[in-house]
Every structure is written in structure tokens, then in C-alpha cells.
Amino acid sequence: MVQRALVLAGGGVAGIAWELGVLLGIREGATDLAPPVEDADLVVGTSAGSTVAAQISTGTDLQSLYDRQLLPTSSEIEVDFDLEAMMATFAEALAASTSPEDMRRRIGALALAADTVTEAMRKRAVGGRLLVQQWSDRAVLIPAIDAETGELVVFTRESGVDLVDAVTASCAVPGVWPPATINGRRYIDGGTRSGTNADLALGADRVLIITPAVATAEPFADQLAQEIAELAPATVFVVSADDAALEAFGLNPLSPATRAPSATAGRALGNSVADRVKEFWA
What we know:
Shape: globular
Largest sheet: 8 strands, mixed
């Protein structure tokens, strides 16, 4: 029986750093919290959150993970990224689609046709994030989308899929990074279904959602509210981005330059919500 679930949402390179900061800030502010948030019975990680889920579930020290975000160098690839343009593309696909899967198929087709770095380059960048590259025995769910069918696929340690491949697939932002090839199929970002995929935590008693999005932003707010409703009768606590986080993310959350300021902003927010998380989690 799953008592506590941790849901880590998408948000680019900035989101990875911010979520690690939030987790560290909570741990610092709630030193006697047992079990620690990062030791949840179930971890659901989408896109950026898949990186963090892989990192915290494989035994890497949280402080070390945070400290790495402050370093001036990393394996990340600098890339031009226009968030508004991507959201407009998603909106066009939605308007023309007949179902959510059809929308994701349309986005997948665009991703398959996009001119990007090679899959090998991208996999090296993602692999550089993970000090341990094998699945642990923890319950970790990493969602991605089949680029051709639009279907949701949830990778776990039982899937027989390399951990780096699973994370690379979940982080394959359409039009920016190449769809990831796994067993002859191509996969795109799990965030094209949902920024959080919180509904995958169904069955947990308590669900902590950490998302580098604004809680009231549309269409995020409506989708998250629906997912939370689907988690009933679980109790849910959401930690979302504040003004300091948004400033740290800037206009390009995929830029490696966002790592240090985002980690710092996340740590401060984690400290500020630690007491409330402790009351909820314990």
C-alpha cells in the first residue's frame, strides 16, 4: 500500500535545479521529518521531474545534487527556446485534434520532423545529470509519449529499459530535442500529456506535488485540479513556483544559465513551506 507519493513536474533545466532546491529546503526546514520527502513510497517524475526522480531514488546525496547545480559547468546543451511559441504550437494541435491522443500524435509528428541535435548528443547530456545510471529498487514512474501513436507509456524498473533512456524520453521537448528511440519506438516529453501526471499517483494516501509552474496559471490550474480530483480520497499538498522562481527561470528555462539562480530560489521556497509540508507529510 502506497502511503506517501511525491510528484515532480516538468520545467526544463531550471525546473530540475529548482525542484532539487525545494527538496533540500524542505529537508533543512523539517530536520526531524520521517520519512524524508525524498524517500516517498512512490515517486512520479515527468520531464525535468524524471531527472530529479532518478537522481533522488538512486541514492545520490541531496546536498551533492544541489551543489552540482551551482557549478558553472554541466553536461547541459545551450539551446534557443521560445516557450510562448511552443505553447502556441500546442494550442494549434489541440484546436485541430479530435482527442488528447490525436493532439499528442500531431505534436509527435512535428517533433519527428524537427531539426535538432543528434540523439546521441542528447543522451550524453541527460546521462551527465545522473551520477548513478541504474534503476534502484524504489517505486519510480517515468511517463513519456509514443510520438507516432500519442499513447502514454510509463517506464519503471520492470520495463527493461535503460534508466538514462527513460529519462531522455521523458525530457524530449518536442521541436527542441530529438524524440528518444527505445526498442524501435520514438518517444517525446511526458509533459505533452500533463506537466505533472499526478493522476499516476492514484492509490496513495498523501500526495506531495512539486511543480515549477504557477498554481493559478491556465491551462495548468484546470488540469492540475482535475488530476487532484482523480486522486481522491488522497490528501494533496502542492508546492508551486513563486515570483523568485519565475525570475530565476527567465525566458528560457532550458538554458544552463538558469541552474544556480533556480536552485537558490527553490531552496528558499522549500525552507518557507517546510513546516506546512511537515504537518502534511507526517
